[in-house]
Design a protein that fits this description.
This protein is α/β, with parallel strands linked by helices and 499 residues long. It has helices at residues 2-7, 29-49, 66-75, 91-100, 142-154, 157-173, 176-191, 222-231, 257-268, 282-288, 325-338, 360-377, 401-414, 429-441, 472-484; strands at residues 17-20, 57-60, 79-81, 119-122, 135-137, 198-202, 209-213, 218-219, 235-239, 272-277, 296-299, 304-306, 314-315, 343-346, 351-354, 383-388, 391-396, 421-426, 452-458, 467-469. The termini are far apart. The structure holds the ligand O=P(O)(O)OC[C@H]1O[C@H](O[C@H]2O[C@H](CO)[C@@H](O)[C@H](O)[C@H]2O)[C@H](O)[C@@H](O)[C@@H]1O. The ligand O=P(O)(O)OC[C@H]1O[C@H](O[C@H]2O[C@H](CO)[C@@H](O)[C@H](O)[C@H]2O)[C@H](O)[C@@H](O)[C@@H]1O binds at residues 240-243, 253, 278-280, 345, 347, 352, 354, 356, 388-391, 393, 428, 430.
Protein backbone atom coordinates (compact mmCIF):
# COMPACT_ATOMS: atom_id res chain seq x y z
CA UNK A 1 0.00 0.00 0.00
CA UNK A 2 2.83 2.34 0.94
CA UNK A 3 4.54 1.63 -2.38
CA UNK A 4 1.27 2.07 -4.31
CA UNK A 5 0.69 5.50 -2.73
CA UNK A 6 4.25 6.47 -3.67
CA UNK A 7 4.06 5.09 -7.24
CA UNK A 8 0.54 6.51 -7.83
CA UNK A 9 0.10 9.69 -5.76
CA UNK A 10 -3.40 10.19 -7.25
CA UNK A 11 -4.63 7.65 -4.66
CA UNK A 12 -3.33 9.67 -1.70
CA UNK A 13 -6.36 10.94 0.19
CA UNK A 14 -8.64 8.44 -1.64
CA UNK A 15 -7.53 4.82 -1.29
CA UNK A 16 -7.95 3.09 2.06
CA UNK A 17 -6.64 -0.33 3.06
CA UNK A 18 -8.60 -2.12 5.78
CA UNK A 19 -5.95 -4.42 7.19
CA UNK A 20 -7.69 -7.24 9.06
CA UNK A 21 -5.13 -9.15 11.11
CA UNK A 22 -6.73 -12.50 11.87
CA UNK A 23 -5.86 -13.63 15.40
CA UNK A 24 -2.83 -15.92 15.24
CA UNK A 25 -3.42 -19.59 16.03
CA UNK A 26 -0.03 -20.02 17.70
CA UNK A 27 2.30 -18.10 20.03
CA UNK A 28 5.99 -17.27 20.10
CA UNK A 29 8.76 -14.74 19.69
CA UNK A 30 8.50 -14.70 15.88
CA UNK A 31 4.83 -13.90 16.13
CA UNK A 32 5.41 -10.99 18.49
CA UNK A 33 8.07 -9.62 16.14
CA UNK A 34 5.74 -9.87 13.14
CA UNK A 35 2.89 -8.19 15.02
CA UNK A 36 5.20 -5.37 16.10
CA UNK A 37 6.44 -4.97 12.52
CA UNK A 38 2.90 -4.80 11.09
CA UNK A 39 1.88 -2.23 13.68
CA UNK A 40 4.99 -0.13 13.03
CA UNK A 41 4.39 -0.27 9.25
CA UNK A 42 0.75 0.84 9.65
CA UNK A 43 1.82 3.76 11.87
CA UNK A 44 4.58 4.79 9.48
CA UNK A 45 2.25 4.77 6.44
CA UNK A 46 -0.46 6.67 8.29
CA UNK A 47 2.02 9.24 9.56
CA UNK A 48 3.39 9.81 6.06
CA UNK A 49 0.11 9.99 4.12
CA UNK A 50 -2.44 11.07 6.73
CA UNK A 51 -4.66 14.08 5.81
CA UNK A 52 -7.48 15.73 7.70
CA UNK A 53 -10.31 13.17 7.65
CA UNK A 54 -8.16 10.53 5.91
CA UNK A 55 -6.10 7.63 7.20
CA UNK A 56 -4.79 5.29 4.48
CA UNK A 57 -4.62 2.24 6.78
CA UNK A 58 -7.32 1.05 9.13
CA UNK A 59 -5.62 -1.64 11.17
CA UNK A 60 -8.04 -4.09 12.80
CA UNK A 61 -6.05 -6.14 15.28
CA UNK A 62 -8.75 -8.06 17.14
CA UNK A 63 -11.03 -11.01 16.48
CA UNK A 64 -13.53 -10.06 13.75
CA UNK A 65 -16.88 -11.85 13.59
CA UNK A 66 -18.02 -13.44 10.32
CA UNK A 67 -20.81 -10.85 10.03
CA UNK A 68 -18.39 -7.94 10.41
CA UNK A 69 -15.97 -9.51 7.95
CA UNK A 70 -18.78 -10.03 5.43
CA UNK A 71 -19.74 -6.37 5.83
CA UNK A 72 -16.20 -5.27 4.96
CA UNK A 73 -16.10 -7.63 1.98
CA UNK A 74 -19.44 -6.30 0.72
CA UNK A 75 -18.20 -2.71 0.50
CA UNK A 76 -14.62 -3.39 -0.60
CA UNK A 77 -13.70 -2.40 -4.17
CA UNK A 78 -10.91 -4.95 -4.10
CA UNK A 79 -9.60 -7.70 -1.84
CA UNK A 80 -5.88 -8.23 -1.53
CA UNK A 81 -4.43 -11.54 -0.29
CA UNK A 82 -0.66 -11.39 -0.40
CA UNK A 83 0.27 -14.42 1.72
CA UNK A 84 3.75 -15.69 0.94
CA UNK A 85 2.70 -19.19 1.90
CA UNK A 86 -0.79 -20.58 2.43
CA UNK A 87 -3.12 -23.48 1.87
CA UNK A 88 -6.37 -23.01 -0.03
CA UNK A 89 -7.34 -19.61 1.48
CA UNK A 90 -11.08 -19.08 1.20
CA UNK A 91 -11.03 -15.29 1.66
CA UNK A 92 -11.27 -14.51 -2.09
CA UNK A 93 -14.25 -16.89 -2.46
CA UNK A 94 -16.06 -15.34 0.55
CA UNK A 95 -15.44 -11.89 -0.88
CA UNK A 96 -16.89 -12.81 -4.29
CA UNK A 97 -20.04 -14.19 -2.67
CA UNK A 98 -20.43 -11.09 -0.49
CA UNK A 99 -20.05 -8.80 -3.51
CA UNK A 100 -22.72 -10.78 -5.35
CA UNK A 101 -25.11 -10.31 -2.44
CA UNK A 102 -28.34 -12.16 -1.81
CA UNK A 103 -30.80 -12.33 -4.73
CA UNK A 104 -33.92 -10.25 -4.05
CA UNK A 105 -32.34 -8.41 -1.13
CA UNK A 106 -33.40 -4.77 -1.66
CA UNK A 107 -31.44 -3.38 1.28
CA UNK A 108 -28.96 -1.61 -0.97
CA UNK A 109 -29.86 0.94 -3.62
CA UNK A 110 -27.79 -0.74 -6.35
CA UNK A 111 -29.00 -4.28 -5.63
CA UNK A 112 -30.11 -4.78 -9.24
CA UNK A 113 -27.12 -3.19 -10.91
CA UNK A 114 -24.35 -5.44 -12.28
CA UNK A 115 -21.98 -6.63 -9.58
CA UNK A 116 -18.28 -6.06 -9.69
CA UNK A 117 -15.28 -7.17 -7.68
CA UNK A 118 -11.52 -7.22 -8.00
CA UNK A 119 -8.94 -9.56 -6.55
CA UNK A 120 -5.21 -9.19 -6.15
CA UNK A 121 -3.90 -12.55 -4.98
CA UNK A 122 -0.56 -14.06 -4.22
CA UNK A 123 0.50 -16.76 -6.65
CA UNK A 124 1.42 -18.82 -3.59
CA UNK A 125 -2.12 -19.39 -2.30
CA UNK A 126 -3.98 -22.54 -3.18
CA UNK A 127 -7.05 -20.87 -4.70
CA UNK A 128 -4.94 -18.72 -7.04
CA UNK A 129 -5.14 -21.03 -10.11
CA UNK A 130 -8.94 -21.22 -9.87
CA UNK A 131 -9.35 -17.43 -10.05
CA UNK A 132 -8.57 -16.73 -13.67
CA UNK A 133 -9.76 -13.11 -13.45
CA UNK A 134 -7.62 -12.24 -10.43
CA UNK A 135 -4.46 -10.22 -10.74
CA UNK A 136 -1.76 -12.61 -9.59
CA UNK A 137 1.34 -11.30 -7.86
CA UNK A 138 4.52 -12.54 -6.33
CA UNK A 139 4.21 -10.81 -2.92
CA UNK A 140 7.98 -10.69 -2.58
CA UNK A 141 8.01 -8.21 -5.45
CA UNK A 142 6.77 -5.00 -3.83
CA UNK A 143 6.81 -2.85 -6.99
CA UNK A 144 4.70 -5.22 -9.08
CA UNK A 145 2.32 -5.79 -6.17
CA UNK A 146 1.88 -2.00 -5.90
CA UNK A 147 1.21 -1.87 -9.67
CA UNK A 148 -1.35 -4.65 -9.31
CA UNK A 149 -3.22 -2.69 -6.60
CA UNK A 150 -3.33 0.38 -8.83
CA UNK A 151 -4.44 -1.71 -11.82
CA UNK A 152 -7.20 -3.35 -9.76
CA UNK A 153 -8.76 -0.17 -8.50
CA UNK A 154 -8.24 1.74 -11.77
CA UNK A 155 -9.86 -0.91 -13.96
CA UNK A 156 -12.95 0.00 -15.99
CA UNK A 157 -16.25 -1.05 -14.41
CA UNK A 158 -17.17 -3.26 -17.39
CA UNK A 159 -13.98 -5.26 -16.93
CA UNK A 160 -14.54 -5.56 -13.18
CA UNK A 161 -18.05 -6.89 -13.91
CA UNK A 162 -16.78 -9.50 -16.38
CA UNK A 163 -14.17 -10.72 -13.92
CA UNK A 164 -16.70 -10.81 -11.11
CA UNK A 165 -19.19 -12.81 -13.21
CA UNK A 166 -16.52 -15.35 -14.09
CA UNK A 167 -15.46 -15.76 -10.47
CA UNK A 168 -19.00 -15.92 -9.12
CA UNK A 169 -19.88 -18.61 -11.67
CA UNK A 170 -16.88 -20.63 -10.51
CA UNK A 171 -17.50 -20.15 -6.76
CA UNK A 172 -21.21 -20.91 -6.98
CA UNK A 173 -20.73 -24.10 -9.00
CA UNK A 174 -17.68 -25.41 -7.18
CA UNK A 175 -19.17 -25.58 -3.71
CA UNK A 176 -18.23 -27.92 -0.89
CA UNK A 177 -20.50 -30.65 -2.30
CA UNK A 178 -18.71 -30.40 -5.66
CA UNK A 179 -15.32 -30.72 -3.98
CA UNK A 180 -16.34 -33.72 -1.88
CA UNK A 181 -17.87 -35.46 -4.94
CA UNK A 182 -14.76 -34.86 -7.00
CA UNK A 183 -12.49 -36.07 -4.20
CA UNK A 184 -14.52 -39.29 -3.94
CA UNK A 185 -14.46 -39.76 -7.71
CA UNK A 186 -10.69 -39.28 -7.77
CA UNK A 187 -10.30 -41.69 -4.88
CA UNK A 188 -12.47 -44.32 -6.55
CA UNK A 189 -10.66 -43.94 -9.87
CA UNK A 190 -7.26 -44.18 -8.21
CA UNK A 191 -8.17 -47.17 -6.07
CA UNK A 192 -10.07 -49.05 -8.81
CA UNK A 193 -7.30 -51.56 -9.47
CA UNK A 194 -5.72 -51.53 -6.03
CA UNK A 195 -6.97 -54.93 -5.00
CA UNK A 196 -5.06 -56.37 -7.95
CA UNK A 197 -1.83 -54.61 -7.00
CA UNK A 198 1.04 -55.34 -4.68
CA UNK A 199 1.86 -52.59 -2.17
CA UNK A 200 5.42 -51.75 -1.18
CA UNK A 201 6.92 -49.33 1.31
CA UNK A 202 9.70 -47.42 -0.39
CA UNK A 203 12.24 -44.91 0.93
CA UNK A 204 13.06 -43.69 4.42
CA UNK A 205 11.93 -40.91 6.73
CA UNK A 206 10.23 -38.02 4.84
CA UNK A 207 10.91 -39.86 1.57
CA UNK A 208 8.88 -42.90 2.71
CA UNK A 209 5.83 -43.73 0.63
CA UNK A 210 3.68 -46.71 -0.15
CA UNK A 211 3.37 -47.52 -3.83
CA UNK A 212 0.91 -49.90 -5.44
CA UNK A 213 2.54 -51.86 -8.24
CA UNK A 214 1.01 -53.99 -10.95
CA UNK A 215 1.38 -57.70 -10.07
CA UNK A 216 3.05 -58.28 -13.46
CA UNK A 217 5.70 -55.62 -12.77
CA UNK A 218 8.90 -57.55 -12.16
CA UNK A 219 12.67 -57.38 -12.15
CA UNK A 220 14.24 -57.78 -15.57
CA UNK A 221 15.99 -61.15 -15.74
CA UNK A 222 19.33 -61.01 -17.52
CA UNK A 223 18.96 -64.62 -18.68
CA UNK A 224 15.56 -63.95 -20.23
CA UNK A 225 16.66 -60.82 -22.07
CA UNK A 226 19.94 -62.34 -23.30
CA UNK A 227 18.04 -65.38 -24.60
CA UNK A 228 15.49 -63.23 -26.50
CA UNK A 229 18.29 -60.98 -27.76
CA UNK A 230 20.28 -63.91 -29.12
CA UNK A 231 17.29 -65.24 -31.06
CA UNK A 232 16.32 -61.86 -32.57
CA UNK A 233 17.20 -60.65 -36.08
CA UNK A 234 16.19 -56.99 -35.92
CA UNK A 235 16.63 -55.30 -32.60
CA UNK A 236 15.66 -51.81 -31.47
CA UNK A 237 17.51 -50.55 -28.39
CA UNK A 238 16.32 -47.23 -26.95
CA UNK A 239 18.29 -45.81 -24.04
CA UNK A 240 17.45 -42.77 -21.96
CA UNK A 241 20.51 -40.86 -20.72
CA UNK A 242 20.21 -39.15 -17.28
CA UNK A 243 19.28 -41.60 -14.56
CA UNK A 244 19.68 -44.56 -16.94
CA UNK A 245 23.24 -44.80 -18.25
CA UNK A 246 24.32 -41.70 -16.31
CA UNK A 247 23.81 -41.73 -12.50
CA UNK A 248 21.65 -38.79 -11.39
CA UNK A 249 24.24 -37.98 -8.70
CA UNK A 250 27.29 -37.74 -11.01
CA UNK A 251 28.84 -34.30 -11.21
CA UNK A 252 30.62 -35.13 -14.46
CA UNK A 253 27.85 -35.78 -16.97
CA UNK A 254 30.10 -37.13 -19.75
CA UNK A 255 29.39 -40.81 -20.49
CA UNK A 256 32.06 -43.10 -19.05
CA UNK A 257 34.50 -44.96 -21.29
CA UNK A 258 32.68 -48.17 -20.34
CA UNK A 259 29.36 -46.81 -21.57
CA UNK A 260 30.89 -45.59 -24.83
CA UNK A 261 32.55 -48.96 -25.42
CA UNK A 262 29.37 -50.97 -24.63
CA UNK A 263 27.27 -48.75 -26.88
CA UNK A 264 29.81 -49.10 -29.70
CA UNK A 265 29.77 -52.89 -29.39
CA UNK A 266 25.95 -52.86 -29.55
CA UNK A 267 26.01 -50.51 -32.56
CA UNK A 268 28.55 -52.72 -34.33
CA UNK A 269 26.10 -55.61 -34.50
CA UNK A 270 24.30 -55.18 -37.85
CA UNK A 271 21.10 -56.57 -36.32
CA UNK A 272 20.90 -53.60 -33.94
CA UNK A 273 19.39 -50.13 -34.22
CA UNK A 274 20.60 -48.26 -31.14
CA UNK A 275 19.36 -44.82 -30.06
CA UNK A 276 20.00 -42.59 -27.08
CA UNK A 277 16.68 -40.82 -26.46
CA UNK A 278 17.18 -37.88 -24.11
CA UNK A 279 15.83 -34.53 -23.01
CA UNK A 280 19.33 -33.06 -23.28
CA UNK A 281 20.42 -30.71 -26.06
CA UNK A 282 21.89 -31.95 -29.35
CA UNK A 283 25.24 -30.22 -28.92
CA UNK A 284 26.17 -31.94 -25.64
CA UNK A 285 24.83 -35.34 -26.72
CA UNK A 286 26.50 -35.01 -30.14
CA UNK A 287 29.81 -34.15 -28.54
CA UNK A 288 29.67 -36.76 -25.75
CA UNK A 289 28.75 -39.57 -28.16
CA UNK A 290 31.03 -38.48 -31.02
CA UNK A 291 33.05 -41.75 -30.67
CA UNK A 292 29.83 -43.73 -31.38
CA UNK A 293 29.58 -43.24 -35.14
CA UNK A 294 26.63 -45.59 -35.71
CA UNK A 295 24.59 -44.45 -32.70
CA UNK A 296 21.27 -42.68 -33.33
CA UNK A 297 20.50 -39.72 -31.05
CA UNK A 298 17.14 -38.14 -30.28
CA UNK A 299 17.86 -34.88 -28.43
CA UNK A 300 15.44 -32.53 -26.63
CA UNK A 301 12.89 -35.37 -26.37
CA UNK A 302 13.03 -35.92 -30.13
CA UNK A 303 12.84 -32.31 -31.33
CA UNK A 304 16.17 -33.16 -32.99
CA UNK A 305 16.97 -36.60 -34.41
CA UNK A 306 20.14 -37.90 -36.04
CA UNK A 307 20.56 -41.51 -37.15
CA UNK A 308 24.38 -41.59 -37.15
CA UNK A 309 27.29 -39.14 -37.13
CA UNK A 310 27.26 -39.28 -40.99
CA UNK A 311 23.79 -37.72 -41.09
CA UNK A 312 22.52 -34.23 -40.41
CA UNK A 313 20.21 -33.45 -37.50
CA UNK A 314 16.54 -33.52 -38.50
CA UNK A 315 14.17 -31.16 -36.75
CA UNK A 316 10.71 -32.28 -35.77
CA UNK A 317 9.03 -29.73 -38.05
CA UNK A 318 5.70 -29.37 -36.21
CA UNK A 319 6.46 -26.29 -34.16
CA UNK A 320 8.43 -23.28 -35.21
CA UNK A 321 6.69 -20.62 -33.11
CA UNK A 322 8.46 -20.13 -29.79
CA UNK A 323 6.55 -16.99 -28.69
CA UNK A 324 5.37 -18.99 -25.66
CA UNK A 325 8.92 -18.78 -24.24
CA UNK A 326 8.31 -15.09 -23.48
CA UNK A 327 5.33 -16.12 -21.34
CA UNK A 328 6.92 -19.11 -19.62
CA UNK A 329 10.26 -17.51 -18.77
CA UNK A 330 8.92 -14.72 -16.50
CA UNK A 331 6.94 -17.30 -14.50
CA UNK A 332 10.06 -19.44 -14.12
CA UNK A 333 12.04 -16.32 -13.13
CA UNK A 334 9.57 -15.54 -10.33
CA UNK A 335 10.10 -19.00 -8.84
CA UNK A 336 13.85 -18.82 -9.39
CA UNK A 337 13.99 -15.57 -7.41
CA UNK A 338 12.17 -17.14 -4.47
CA UNK A 339 13.90 -20.56 -4.59
CA UNK A 340 17.59 -20.50 -3.65
CA UNK A 341 19.68 -22.90 -5.73
CA UNK A 342 17.24 -23.13 -8.64
CA UNK A 343 18.01 -21.99 -12.18
CA UNK A 344 16.56 -21.87 -15.70
CA UNK A 345 18.03 -23.81 -18.62
CA UNK A 346 17.19 -22.42 -22.08
CA UNK A 347 17.27 -25.11 -24.76
CA UNK A 348 16.59 -24.65 -28.48
CA UNK A 349 13.01 -25.94 -28.22
CA UNK A 350 12.30 -25.97 -24.48
CA UNK A 351 12.70 -24.19 -21.15
CA UNK A 352 13.66 -26.13 -18.05
CA UNK A 353 13.51 -25.05 -14.41
CA UNK A 354 16.03 -27.00 -12.30
CA UNK A 355 15.74 -27.40 -8.53
CA UNK A 356 18.20 -30.21 -7.79
CA UNK A 357 20.38 -27.85 -5.72
CA UNK A 358 17.47 -26.22 -3.85
CA UNK A 359 16.11 -27.34 -0.49
CA UNK A 360 14.56 -30.77 -1.17
CA UNK A 361 11.07 -30.15 0.25
CA UNK A 362 10.73 -26.49 -0.69
CA UNK A 363 12.12 -27.10 -4.20
CA UNK A 364 9.62 -29.82 -4.98
CA UNK A 365 6.66 -27.90 -3.56
CA UNK A 366 7.70 -24.85 -5.61
CA UNK A 367 7.95 -27.13 -8.66
CA UNK A 368 4.38 -28.36 -8.12
CA UNK A 369 3.06 -24.82 -7.76
CA UNK A 370 5.02 -23.63 -10.76
CA UNK A 371 3.68 -26.46 -12.88
CA UNK A 372 0.11 -25.41 -12.00
CA UNK A 373 0.98 -21.81 -12.68
CA UNK A 374 2.59 -22.60 -16.05
CA UNK A 375 -0.33 -24.79 -17.07
CA UNK A 376 -2.77 -21.94 -16.50
CA UNK A 377 -0.57 -19.26 -18.12
CA UNK A 378 0.15 -21.47 -21.16
CA UNK A 379 -3.31 -23.03 -21.46
CA UNK A 380 -3.79 -21.69 -25.01
CA UNK A 381 -0.24 -22.22 -26.24
CA UNK A 382 0.96 -25.24 -28.29
CA UNK A 383 3.13 -26.55 -25.45
CA UNK A 384 3.14 -29.06 -22.61
CA UNK A 385 4.56 -28.46 -19.13
CA UNK A 386 5.77 -31.53 -17.27
CA UNK A 387 7.88 -32.33 -14.25
CA UNK A 388 10.85 -34.72 -14.24
CA UNK A 389 13.82 -35.53 -11.99
CA UNK A 390 14.26 -32.19 -10.17
CA UNK A 391 13.00 -30.31 -13.22
CA UNK A 392 9.91 -28.68 -14.64
CA UNK A 393 10.07 -28.50 -18.40
CA UNK A 394 7.99 -26.69 -21.00
CA UNK A 395 8.33 -28.08 -24.50
CA UNK A 396 6.41 -28.01 -27.78
CA UNK A 397 3.24 -30.08 -27.88
CA UNK A 398 3.64 -33.26 -29.90
CA UNK A 399 7.34 -33.58 -29.15
CA UNK A 400 7.78 -36.65 -26.98
CA UNK A 401 9.99 -39.64 -26.54
CA UNK A 402 6.91 -41.75 -27.38
CA UNK A 403 6.89 -40.25 -30.86
CA UNK A 404 10.61 -40.98 -31.18
CA UNK A 405 9.98 -44.66 -30.40
CA UNK A 406 7.20 -44.77 -32.99
CA UNK A 407 9.45 -43.13 -35.64
CA UNK A 408 12.25 -45.64 -35.00
CA UNK A 409 9.96 -48.69 -35.28
CA UNK A 410 8.24 -47.29 -38.39
CA UNK A 411 11.48 -46.51 -40.17
CA UNK A 412 12.87 -50.00 -39.34
CA UNK A 413 9.70 -51.54 -40.83
CA UNK A 414 9.95 -49.31 -43.92
CA UNK A 415 13.48 -50.62 -44.45
CA UNK A 416 12.17 -54.18 -44.32
CA UNK A 417 13.55 -54.73 -40.82
CA UNK A 418 10.49 -55.11 -38.57
CA UNK A 419 11.77 -55.09 -35.00
CA UNK A 420 11.44 -58.53 -33.39
CA UNK A 421 13.21 -57.39 -30.19
CA UNK A 422 12.71 -54.08 -28.37
CA UNK A 423 14.62 -52.94 -25.32
CA UNK A 424 13.63 -49.54 -23.99
CA UNK A 425 15.08 -48.29 -20.67
CA UNK A 426 14.44 -45.02 -18.85
CA UNK A 427 13.92 -43.68 -15.37
CA UNK A 428 11.90 -40.54 -15.76
CA UNK A 429 8.41 -39.18 -16.44
CA UNK A 430 9.37 -38.44 -20.05
CA UNK A 431 10.36 -42.10 -20.56
CA UNK A 432 6.84 -43.16 -19.61
CA UNK A 433 5.76 -41.77 -23.02
CA UNK A 434 8.00 -44.39 -24.66
CA UNK A 435 6.69 -47.17 -22.43
CA UNK A 436 3.12 -46.17 -23.19
CA UNK A 437 3.75 -46.11 -26.94
CA UNK A 438 5.52 -49.48 -26.77
CA UNK A 439 2.69 -50.92 -24.63
CA UNK A 440 0.17 -50.03 -27.36
CA UNK A 441 2.50 -50.71 -30.32
CA UNK A 442 1.46 -54.31 -30.90
CA UNK A 443 -2.27 -53.46 -30.88
CA UNK A 444 -1.74 -50.44 -33.10
CA UNK A 445 0.31 -52.53 -35.58
CA UNK A 446 3.59 -50.62 -35.09
CA UNK A 447 5.20 -53.78 -33.72
CA UNK A 448 4.27 -57.35 -34.63
CA UNK A 449 2.88 -60.01 -32.28
CA UNK A 450 6.13 -61.97 -32.18
CA UNK A 451 8.22 -58.99 -31.00
CA UNK A 452 9.96 -59.56 -27.66
CA UNK A 453 9.35 -56.34 -25.79
CA UNK A 454 11.40 -55.28 -22.77
CA UNK A 455 10.16 -51.92 -21.49
CA UNK A 456 12.16 -51.31 -18.34
CA UNK A 457 12.17 -48.53 -15.75
CA UNK A 458 15.08 -47.75 -13.44
CA UNK A 459 13.96 -48.08 -9.81
CA UNK A 460 10.86 -49.77 -8.40
CA UNK A 461 8.03 -47.32 -8.86
CA UNK A 462 4.64 -47.15 -10.56
CA UNK A 463 5.38 -47.23 -14.29
CA UNK A 464 3.94 -48.21 -17.63
CA UNK A 465 7.02 -50.38 -18.07
CA UNK A 466 6.59 -54.08 -17.30
CA UNK A 467 10.12 -54.51 -15.93
CA UNK A 468 12.49 -52.71 -13.61
CA UNK A 469 16.15 -52.74 -12.71
CA UNK A 470 17.36 -51.12 -9.50
CA UNK A 471 19.90 -48.55 -10.69
CA UNK A 472 22.24 -47.36 -13.42
CA UNK A 473 24.85 -49.95 -12.40
CA UNK A 474 22.35 -52.71 -13.20
CA UNK A 475 21.50 -51.03 -16.52
CA UNK A 476 25.14 -50.95 -17.56
CA UNK A 477 25.70 -54.52 -16.35
CA UNK A 478 22.74 -55.74 -18.41
CA UNK A 479 23.92 -53.84 -21.52
CA UNK A 480 27.33 -55.43 -21.02
CA UNK A 481 25.72 -58.89 -21.20
CA UNK A 482 23.92 -57.91 -24.41
CA UNK A 483 27.15 -56.54 -25.88
CA UNK A 484 28.84 -59.84 -25.04
CA UNK A 485 26.06 -61.70 -26.86
CA UNK A 486 26.41 -59.46 -29.94
CA UNK A 487 28.09 -60.26 -33.22
CA UNK A 488 31.31 -58.31 -33.78
CA UNK A 489 31.43 -56.09 -36.87
CA UNK A 490 32.15 -57.86 -40.14
CA UNK A 491 35.87 -57.80 -40.91
CA UNK A 492 37.16 -56.90 -44.37
CA UNK A 493 39.76 -58.88 -46.29
CA UNK A 494 42.59 -57.24 -48.23
CA UNK A 495 40.26 -56.68 -51.21
CA UNK A 496 37.80 -54.73 -48.97
CA UNK A 497 35.12 -57.48 -49.10
CA UNK A 498 33.33 -57.81 -45.73
CA UNK A 499 33.15 -61.24 -44.05
O1 LIG B 1 15.89 -37.45 -20.88
P1 LIG B 1 17.04 -37.42 -19.95
O2 LIG B 1 18.31 -37.94 -20.58
O3 LIG B 1 16.75 -38.16 -18.65
O4 LIG B 1 17.35 -35.89 -19.64
C1 LIG B 1 16.45 -35.12 -18.89
C2 LIG B 1 17.04 -33.80 -18.47
O5 LIG B 1 18.43 -33.95 -18.27
C3 LIG B 1 19.12 -32.80 -17.76
O6 LIG B 1 18.68 -32.59 -16.45
C4 LIG B 1 19.20 -33.53 -15.53
O7 LIG B 1 20.53 -33.17 -15.21
C5 LIG B 1 20.68 -31.98 -14.43
C6 LIG B 1 22.14 -31.75 -14.13
O8 LIG B 1 22.91 -31.70 -15.29
C7 LIG B 1 19.91 -32.11 -13.13
O9 LIG B 1 19.96 -30.89 -12.41
C8 LIG B 1 18.44 -32.46 -13.40
O10 LIG B 1 17.80 -32.70 -12.16
C9 LIG B 1 18.35 -33.67 -14.29
O11 LIG B 1 16.98 -33.92 -14.62
C10 LIG B 1 18.89 -31.60 -18.67
O12 LIG B 1 19.48 -30.46 -18.09
C11 LIG B 1 17.42 -31.41 -19.00
O13 LIG B 1 17.30 -30.41 -20.00
C12 LIG B 1 16.84 -32.71 -19.53
O14 LIG B 1 15.46 -32.56 -19.85
Amino acid sequence: MEQMLKQHPKWQGRAVLIQIANPARGKGKDLEEIQAEIEASCNRINETFRQPGYEPIIFINRPVSLGERAAYYTIAECVVVTAVRDGMNLTPYEYIVCRQGIPGNESTSDSNSPKKSMLVVSEFIGCSPSLSGAIRVNPWNIETTAEALNEAISMADAEKQLRHEKHYKYVSTHDVAYWSRSFFQDLERTCKDHFKRRCWGIGLSFGFRVVALDPNFRKLSIDAIVSAYSKAKNRAILLDYDGTVMPQTSINKHPSEDVISIINRLCDDVKNTVFVVSGRGKDSLGQWFSPCKKLGIAAEHGYFIRRSTDEEWETCGQNTDFGWMHMAEPVMKLYTESTDGSYIEVKESALVWHHQDADLGFGSSQAKEMLDHLESVLANEPVTAKSGQFIVEVKPQGVSKGLVAEKIFTSMAENGRHADFVLCIGDDRSDEDMFEKIGNAINSGILSFNTSVFACTVGQKPSKAKYYVDDTTEVINMLQFLADASNPPPTEDASGIPH
